Amino acid sequence: MPFRWNPDLTEQDVTPEAVFQQRRRLLQGAIALGAGAALGLRPHSMLANTGLTDVQKDPSPPDESLTPFDSASSYTNFYELGSGKSDPSMHASKLQTKPWHVVIDGEVSKPGRLALEDLLKPHPLEERVYRLRCVEAWSMVIPWIGFPLEALLQRFEPTSKARHVSFETLYDPAHLPGQNQGMLAWPYREGLRLDEAMNPLTILAVGMYGRLLPNQNGAPLRLVVPWKYGFKSIKSIVRITLTEQQPITSWNQKAPEEYGFYANVNPEVDHPRWDQSKERRIGEFLRRKTLPFNGYGAQVASLYAGMDLKKFF
Ligand SMILES: Nc1nc2c(c(=O)[nH]1)N[C@H]1C(S)=C(S)[C@@H](COP(=O)(O)O)O[C@H]1N2
Ligand SMILES: [Mo]
Description:
There is one protein chain. By secondary structure, the chain is an alpha+beta fold. It has a single domain (about 15-300), classed as Sulfite Oxidase, Chain A, domain 2 (Alpha-Beta Complex). It has nine helices and twelve strands. A hairpin with a 6-residue loop joins strand 11 (about 280) and strand 12. The longest helix is centred in the N-terminal third of the chain and has 17 residues, at about 15-35. The model is unreliable at about 10-15 and about 30-50 (pLDDT under 50). The structure holds the ligand Nc1nc2c(c(=O)[nH]1)N[C@H]1C(S)=C(S)[C@@H](COP(=O)(O)O)O[C@H]1N2 and molybdenum atom.
């Protein structure tokens, strides 16, 4: 019985953060002692009351502390809800997430428009603890809950012409204040090459820290591509289009010399206005070195074999 999405639950119904962290520590302690059974804890018991039960825990999380939930949910970039870091959490309730539909179209044999529940139903949820590295040189470590994008794309049967995937965020200027300003060309768009989209690290997330995604983090469905700068991880997705040509992406369209299509985390390619070789992990004082592909090179560097990554930045 893999599926456990409960569309009636909201972020307010979920385990408080302190309880979640406490259970997490308990569980980690229990695993270290090999005593999980003795304590009567099963991994999914941590997620009771979240609507996200039976989530498979990340089998090999990085050996790093998680960014506190309060930071990850209050220091966010979501220009539809304002351009300051605390604007999105302040204006989070303006994002209307119910009902929510997602269109899958373009180069697929079985295009469709599905209610979120139906889109998610077949997909078992997993936790993935990933680093997120913003182009602005700060970073976080976040336990996402989601499933591989590949599984979803396969269901709609990409045609032999499909080479790229384009994503669009909700366009709702009546509710989203940023969309009445010309900061970016709306709706927010992002794109990947098909092989990047199919890579097992690439997920669609519906939750984080054992709970549903807060609106300001991209509820109810967002992309997470951990080896690319944060702006590739598009929030609040309503459309996924498979294309032959490389799609338009919002930041590339706004300032192509600053934001490339690939946007792979690369300490050797500086942003024109600042150095990209270091980053500040939110909650830490000293800056740390930025790793090529944000530390995921073993899994993804082969996607770019033979490419000049200074040209295709
Ligand atoms: N629709 C939309 N998606 C977006 C953004 C945005 O402004 N609008 N900002 C991006 C940027 S720049 C970053 S760093 C990440 C941040 O994700 P987080 O706020 O959940 O940490 O979201 C990305 N996704
Ligand atoms: Mo970012």
